[in-house]
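Subject — a protein and its fold
Encoding — discrete vocabulary of local shapes:
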Amino acid sequence: MLAKRIIPCLDIKDGQTVKGVNFVEIKAVGDPVELGALYAEQGADELVFLDITASHEKRKTLVDLVRRIARNINIPFTVGGGVTEIADADALLSAGADKVSVNSAAVRNPNLINDLALNFGKQFVVCAIDARLANDCWTVTVNGGRIPTDKELFSWAKEAENRGAGEILFTSMNHDGTKGGFANNALCMLSESLSIPIIASGGAGTMEHFYDTFTIGKADAGLAASIFHYKEIGIPELKAYLHERGIVVRL
């Protein structure tokens, strides 16, 4: 059985790590280079870097910052924000990224997923999906959750898989930053309908929430930000908790 992964997330705005609630009330929480190095040292399985305003500001990801973080970690590193073409992904790969995450640009140009998978391999491509639940429908959004689209979570995730995405990073906007638990029903449906790994994002607040998303939600990885940034939960303690309850993790 593959080990479940614990993934801290660095949401980046103006070169600083930030965190909000439901994609608003954004506050700075620390230096991304220092945090990335700390999480790698603590035993995080991977690190995700998301330049959360790149698409909205119509600019590229902060490549120099990616390079500085990559120099200080020894775990797989996924980078997203502002990736719109092969050249962007190539620059991030050269800077030390192991995978790229595409979100808004892929919604607007789904062929971007095909192109990335063809050029770099499926394992390099993460399709991030920010979706909001309303009236029993998960609506996909773009530009950091600012703009709703006509796409629906499950059909878009399936299309992304078919086009060559190697993983889906699903963030529930309803749960983001609330620390009330992950969107496990939706995660379970994604897991059962797709054959690629699903990363759960949005809502982590307790160790039990990770246990629930790995069992009820059937997620392959649990991503969180504020609980790690504010030292509410330590990665070694979280892994020990999960291991004691029969979840396969890398200790």
User: Anything to note?
Assistant: The radius of gyration is 16 Å.
